[in-house]
Amino acid sequence: MPDALDVQDCLQRVRSGDSVAAHALIGHLHSLVRRLVRNHLPRRESEEDLMQECFVKLFQKLESYRERDGIPFEHWVSRLTVRTCLDALRAEKARPEWRWADFSEGETEWLDYLLNRQAETPTAHGTDAKTIVTRLLAALSPADRLVITLLDLEERSTQEIAQITGWTRPMVKMRAMRARHKLRALARQSMKSEFKDP
Amino acid sequence: MKDFDQRWQTLTREARGHSTESPVDLPQGFGSRVLALARQSSGEAWEDVLSLFGLRAMVAVTCVLVLSGSLAFSEWFEPRIEPPALEKSLTSHLSWP
Asked: What is the pTM of this model?
């Protein structure tokens, strides 16, 4: 059972070159790493490739993790994974510009709601909400996208985000505020294209 | 803006509720691939470090050799200061017949 794994014992065995322990560690951590990678995945990157990159980095840097530093191993892994994803997001050359015509009916209903053109909460399917959030976030800068994903989708506290990213708490709050401003501007911009589209 | 924030929160709440968090098994051979890559790239990293240090050492040794060589040559070609033939001329001038 992966959840019953004694992580510290496993880490010691991995450090001494035990490949069975290394496989057990991957099995124990893969759901955590997959969830983070899925939330911060660049558009053109494969989930499995990025997961692989995260695990390779994890084994390369395992020597630098010390339990006595007071950081739980899972936090250390989360931090490493998020940073790897941020690097992958930064490596993306272009960010998409969405036009009204790119959205489905359900998605435009959510955009209307977001921009105050519709008072009622949309009755559209929840997957439309998920798609519109993903699309808007993809148009943000990597750091803005990261902070909004951690704060609004993963529901992490500013303290946790500060620990993961290495930013200060006021910096996290400021970045989140600016990112929401940009989101609003992006939503408005795509709405304007509604009138330009033939 | 406050209104947008509230609506954005509603939207993200809805998106969170429909996130596909299905448990997925590890792909076949994923662990072995990761371990092989980690071993390979850690070796490469060491090779990189060694080659970097090797390159630096070579540059340093070349600099030392050039410096010492130029010093040796400058000493070799340095004009030798011969003591003037003072003694001889004085003795020749002051020598009594």
From this structure: 0.68
